[in-house]
Amino acid sequence: MLTPSERAPGLVLGPGVTLGEDVALGANVVIHAGVEIGAGCSIQDGAVLGKTPVLAPTSSASRATPPPLVLEDGANIGAGAIVFAGARIGAGAIVGDQAHIRERAVIGAQSVVGRASAIGSDASIGARVRIQTNVWLTSHSLVEDDVFVGPGVVSTNDDAMARGGEDYVLRGPTLRRACRVGGGVVLAPGVEVGEEAFVAAGAVVTRDVPPRVLVMGVPARVVRDVPAEELLSTD
Fold this sequence. Notes:
The chain is an all-beta fold. It has strands spanning 3-4, 12-13, 18-19, 24-25, 30-31, 36-37, 42-43, 48-51, 70-71, 76-77, 82-84, 88-89, 94-95, 100-101, 106-107, 112-113, 118-119, 124-125, 130-131, 136-137, 142-143, 148-149, 154-155, 174-175, 180-181, 186-187, 192-193, 198-199, 204-205, 213-216, 221-225.
């Protein structure tokens, strides 16, 4: 049961919520049962934390009750953002205004999820990742450290479009360390973008991208190597 709190205007808290020291709370925030909020976190107006999912009868997502949402120290949740139960937001990470983080998703330390972007269930986002505005990273996506995802990127995880049968396995994309994905790119189910690779804006990635190359086009094709001066490391 949610109950009003006098700590902030319109704040509503569920039972067992843990609030660390120096947590800043905006107006009309809703925090569901068991949410753990670390020290120095900022929760802006109208955010909803620890919401449990409502799944369609045909959904293949796990129906196990997710554990409580955890916000590590210094995490920032923007106005109107929704972060589901079972998610974990790393230390110093930023979840932008109106963003949507599903159950069991993990956002690494110092990463940024841009305004109105959405992260699907069971997705794993590494540290220092930059996800721009209006991005959709589907369930079961894997994004390693220092990746850049441009605005409007769309990922997919179901080649059969809900007609794969009971044994069909959803496959999100894998974005390896420090790769860069330009604005408006479409990632097909299960593709891997290699370490330090560069996907040009508007490309449609239908096959794996090797490390440290630039691809562009529909479908995306290798154009050249990424210049050494653009690499985070030269190992």
